[in-house]
Structure formats: structure tokens, C-alpha cells
Amino acid sequence: VQLQASGGGLVQPGGSLRLACAASGFTLDHYAIGWLRQVPGKEREVISCISSRDLKTLYSDSVRDRFTISRDLAKNTVYLQMNSLKPEDTAVYYCMSTIEGTPYFGQGTLVTVSS
Predict the structure, then answer these.
(1) Where are the beta strands (DSSP E) in 1-115?
(2) Mean pLDDT of the region 33-47
(3) CA-to-CA distance for 50 and 36, rounded, in angstroms?
(4) Measured between alpha carbons, how far is residue 2 from residues 23, 24, 30, 57, 106 in Å?
């Protein structure tokens, strides 16, 4: 099982980024997948997830109405579209999934929101 996150970078406040999480070793139509973020010195925050079968999505209060999670089964990839970015969104973003009771995390991608 591998999760490969990408798409981070430097963006100005109010800007947008799209993160991608490419999964291998399992298929996204069988397991839910989520995005978390972590600021150094703070606890990891779960910000969004998408279910495997009915595509139900959940968002934290901090990103609801600004971020959108989606899935492309053909590419076995989950995306996180981030709009109206704020400086407080600066963090390392991880994707994760729990497969047969074992959590797997991608390597993280850094998002910096700054002018």
C-alpha cells in the first residue's frame, strides 16, 4: 500500500491549489480516504474525507465551503481542491487511509499561504 501526495506549494492569500493523492496497492472504491494537515508544534488535524461506496464527504469547520474533496477511480487518485486559501491554512498536508485496520499515510506535501 502506498499513498503519494503532491501539489503543494506557495500561494498568495485568496489563491487556490489542488492536492492529489495517488493510491496504489488498494482501490479507492473499497476504502475511504482522508486528508489531514499538521502545523509544526500542533496536533494533526483531520480536514476532509470521502467514503468508498457512496462518496459521502465530510469537512472540518476550518475548511468547509472552501475545500472540496473528490475522487477519480480511473486514476485511483483523490484530490483536494483548496480555494480562498488563508495564511492559517499553511501546513503539511497528508492523505491517509485505513486498510484492514492499519493506517497508511502519504509522505506529506507542504502548502504555504503567504504574500
Answers:
(1) 2-6, 9-11, 17-24, 33-38, 45-50, 57-59, 67-72, 77-82, 91-99, 102-105, 109-113
(2) 95
(3) 12
(4) 6, 5, 15, 22, 7
